[in-house]
Write a structure and sequence with these properties.
- The structure is a single chain.
- It contains 16 helices and nine strands.
- The chain has about 260 residues and is of the alpha/beta class.
- It folds into two domains: about 130 residues, HAD superfamily/HAD-like (Rossmann fold), CATH 3.40.50; about 100 residues, no CATH class.
- A hairpin with a 2-residue loop joins strand 3 and strand 4.
Length: about 260
């Protein structure tokens, strides 16, 4: 009986400690890629449906992110900071783009010239060039995006429960995003993107700068990341972080004692 009582007391103390620890959470930083995703049909109008089928016949698969990254790897870039997307290493020229280190028109011209001079087939050159033009045109890129409804609802729920919610992440042009999705973004307490900060995730300087600008400490915030790699990096900096899963995000946050 005494043993059971001691165990019960310890469990109670543990619960109180966990609750106290996370009751200090004031801010939630949500990665931009959990809120927006590419609408394939919208993207296809810039790539060209017929060209995509010709690409499939030539290469054996439809154009994809891996093809793009692989064929841009050799483009000269200023940045030495490597980042990732969908578990793939991004070429440094795209780090330049995300960081806004030089005008997008220069990066576009450089990338297109590199593709044109490559040994790729004509259809590969045309399709990859169309993808690059779509990506590096802020208006076109935003036009291909759609809101993830689960995340939009999550943001509203967190704000209604008193949390400060910020959108953060690797994205080149903030203005076009705000213009197109003003209604979705207006309730946020702030937006901090790589092109605006000239800093890129998953490097520690990005996280530190966002915390400094929002005046929150590491123990007052939780970071919701799109990919496990970014979650692990954030944790290695002493931050509280979790990987976004639209099916379990509510329960995952509740497990961290977030009121939701």
């Amino acid at each position: 009986m005494i043993k059971k009582y001691i165990v019960a007391c310890l469990l109670c103390i543990s619960t109180v400690i966990t609750s106290t620890k996370n009751s200090s959470i004031k801010a939630i930083f949500i990665d931009i890629e959990t809120l927006f995703e590419t609408h394939d049909m919208k993207a296809s109008k810039y790539i060209g449906k017929i060209d995509a089928l010709r690409y499939l016949k030539q290469v054996g698969h439809l154009p994809n992110q891996n093809d793009l990254f692989k064929n841009l790897t050799g483009v000269s870039a200023q940045s030495t900071l490597t980042t990732y997307n969908n578990k793939l290493v991004m070429p440094l020229i795209l780090s330049d783009w995300l960081l806004n280190v030089e005008p997008t028109t220069h990066l576009l011209k450089k990338s297109l010239l590199f593709i044109e001079k490559s040994r790729l087939s004509d259809i590969e050159k045309r399709v990859l060039s169309n993808i690059i033009k779509m990506m590096m045109d802020p208006a076109k890129l935003v036009d291909t995006q759609q809101v993830v409804s689960t995340t939009e609802k999550l943001i509203k729920l967190l704000i209604s429960n008193g949390y400060k919610v910020y959108l953060v992440g690797n994205w080149a042009h903030k203005n076009s995003l705000q213009k197109e999705f003003h209604k979705t973004l207006q309730s946020l307490h702030g937006i901090y993107l790589s092109g605006q900060l000239h800093l890129i995730k998953p490097y520690q300087e990005f996280y530190n700068t966002v915390l400094e600008k929002t005046a929150f400490d590491t123990n007052q915030s939780i970071w919701i990341e799109k990919e496990a790699y970014f979650t692990n990096k954030a944790k290695s900096y002493g931050l509280q972080a979790l990987t976004y899963n639209k099916h379990s995000i509510i329960q995952d946050l509740k497990a961290l004692q977030i009121k939701i």
